[in-house]
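quick one: cytidine-5'-triphosphate bound model?
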Amino acid sequence: MQIYLVGGAVRDALLQVPVYDRDWVVVGASQEQMLAQGFQQVGKDFPVFLHPDSKEEYALARTERKQGAGYHGFSVFAEPCVTLEEDLIRRDLTINAMARAQDGTIIDPYGGQVDLQNRILRHVSGAFSEDPLRVLRVARFAAKLAPFDFVLAEETKILMAQMVASGELAELTPERVWQEVVKVLGSAEPHRFFEVLDEVGALAVLFPELQALHGVTQPEKYHPEGDAWIHTLMVLQQATVLDVSLEVRFAALMHDLGKGVTPPELWPKHHGHEAAGVPLVKALCQRYRVPKKIEHFACKVTEYHGLIHNGLKEGAPFLKPKTYHKVLQNCGAYKDPQTFHKLLIVCQADARGRLGFEQIPYPQLVFWQQLLAAANQVDNQAIIAEGFTGKAIAEQIEKTRIENITKFIRG
Ligand SMILES: Nc1ccn([C@@H]2O[C@H](COP(=O)(O)OP(=O)(O)OP(=O)(O)O)[C@@H](O)[C@H]2O)c(=O)n1
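yep, here:
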């Protein structure tokens, strides 16, 4: 049997980026031989084994043919006669279809190294279209490899657009779509993923709420970058610079969905877009089974980002004390100040996600934190000692918080 390193590990090593996962292909072996050598079988649909020591994945070289719809429609052939070239040709991109032999030789029958040098994402063969997830994977690689400026080969773009147009994305389960989004939001330039989806028509199918932001005008003075879609991608970029967490980046992407449902006769204004966005965010999250915590955070950002910005206008407090308190309360700031801090980060990304505003200071961030600290100066024990009981304790705490806020904003 011959063993080769394949896929992403070969690609990433050639690009000189860290390799996290190593996948291996075994040529000329049977399942029985693998088991006899102590490998543990894990794949149900095709023969994949875990190495007895490293626990890395070793797959028998295989060919695959799609027979029907969905993920169960593959017929797999994984006998010892399957060659490495036959295994590599069923893979998605040329840059992912290279192997490295144990002596270090690179086996590259489909031009992966040239495409890697020329920074091109190109499908290997017609087999690409057998798996609709690959539309998302290519978009994800555009995001992941954005620091290297990879572009899509024209023929791959056309093929992806055809796959989308023929309705194949409907086969994707919500979990798989969300998994890709999670990986993308952890990458260097996640906005590239959504741009590529847009280029091949997949955005309209998977995220119609984002598609609806195209061409939605905004006041030019505050948004020289253009429409609400361009703004959204810029906010995502800024959020990616400011914070590594999934919830911050996802909320940045969601925060202005409400602008997509403003009646066009009201454009470029979007009064009330914050509240209008909440049901759209919820629907999208439910569609993709987004974890509740992430959905909840994205909804809070969507609903309150306007008030957070307006917390200071021209450097001065602008809202009523009760409103400040309500925002803090409804955003969960009293219970979970860390999450509230993240919400402020998304708002900062929103302010900076505009052409020419990328470096602006966002004094609201420190202001709201100081306001929260001031509001929190409540001695619960003293309130109880004063004789308050039951519901009256909570009312007294609230009253004290509002008094503290009032003192704070009056300076
Ligand atoms: N839908 C898929 C999934 C995987 N692959 C192939 O299987 C390899 C391993 O897949 P995976 O671990 O998902 O991706 P990586 O390429 O390793 O990249 P990353 O770990 O960065 O996602 C890929 O390189 C590719 O050759 C494929 O052709 N089509």
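The chain has a mean pLDDT of 96.
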